[in-house]
Design a protein that fits this description.
With 124 residues, the chain is an alpha/beta fold. Helix content is 44%, strand content 26%. The chain has one domain: Rossmann fold. The protein is globular and about 50 Å long. The chain binds flavin mononucleotide (FMN).
Amino acid sequence: MEKTTTTILVVYASDYGSTEKMALAAVEGINSVPGGIAAVKKAEEVTAEDMTASDGVLIGSPVHMGSMDWRVKKMIDTVCSGLWMQDKMNGKVVGAEVLALTKRHAVHVTRAAAALKDQALFAA
Ligand SMILES: Cc1cc2nc3c(=O)[nH]c(=O)nc-3n(C[C@H](O)[C@H](O)[C@H](O)COP(=O)(O)O)c2cc1C
């Protein structure tokens, strides 16, 4: 039987709530699409099972010192890398949202988003 649902795992790290707010808005959006099912987890809580159960992953990170949050990087280096080595990340659709302090720091967002994109493309 044809699959009629798409599960997206929304993963985020957040200290002051902005990235969390965006992640929860994404969850609302995903659930509003027919067949869309969102699962949401903080980066430290994501398991290999969460990752393999999803068709796609949306990763949210605040910019920290010009790059992605360490908890997001840790999740990629631990959970994703183990799956990647077993070819279990193949074909997964990955998106990213990155937040910084002000527009002046757009270069930091660009850099952090690029790092996140590179890692995501590497893994998927
Ligand atoms: C440890 C730390 C490092 C940060 N480094 C940067 C940075 O390099 N560039 C920047 O624009 N914002 C930086 N910020 C600001 C955050 O990216 C910004 O406030 C973000 O919106 C916080 O997201 P949150 O509310 O989800 O924690 C930093 C914040 C913290 C706590």
